[in-house]
Amino acid sequence: MAGKNGRVYEQLFSPTVQHTLDLVGIFVFAISGALLAVRKNFDVFGIAVLAEVTALGGGLFRDLVIGAVPPAAFTDLGYFLTPLLATLLVFFLHPHVERLQTGVNIFDAAGLGLFCVAGTTKAYDYGLGLTASACLGLTTAVGGGVLRDVLANEVPSLLRWDRDLYAVPAIVGSAMVALCIRYEALTPFTSGLAVVTAFVLRLLALRFHWRAPRAWNRRSTVVEGD
User: Where do transmembrane segments lie in this chain (predicted)?
Assistant: First the structure.
């Protein structure tokens, strides 16, 4: 049940469209988690865990923070089974999936855009302010990836200077939604524009290797590329 700010997200898309978009995003994020597990030489259980965590971690954290309990990940069987489907696909066909990495990156960018918009609007629906809603939109989009990297014993890609921009596109998408809500301009068109903006920014970052700046005039003993 939505909170004091109403049902913004439900007004944007029909329940069927919402559910379909959620499952697509979950599936693509699960693929990225499962592929990392294969690279780390995890067994099938480890692959499934990393797929589930990557796909559902951000949304689960958001739902717990806003009080949407039990979280959707535990009330909709499709949310739980979709990462398992991705696990099976990667388990048996991972060499082929690896070769489709460009396609996976494109869908991952689309999932990033969808989740940052959905996360922001859902958080606002449950009574959070605009800034907090945008922050939870960002968390929804990138939280699963952070948990994936931690479980795989890696520095989260979100924090590494040698990774192409990932959080920034999600920040831009979430901020656009918050501003649209503030000025009562949130419609299916403007929310779609926020999704597309985050999506395109992420693709451009991948294409041109855009990265966030490091500390000015830094002195570090860390070898670049480590």
Answer: 20-38, 45-65, 77-94, 130-152, 191-210
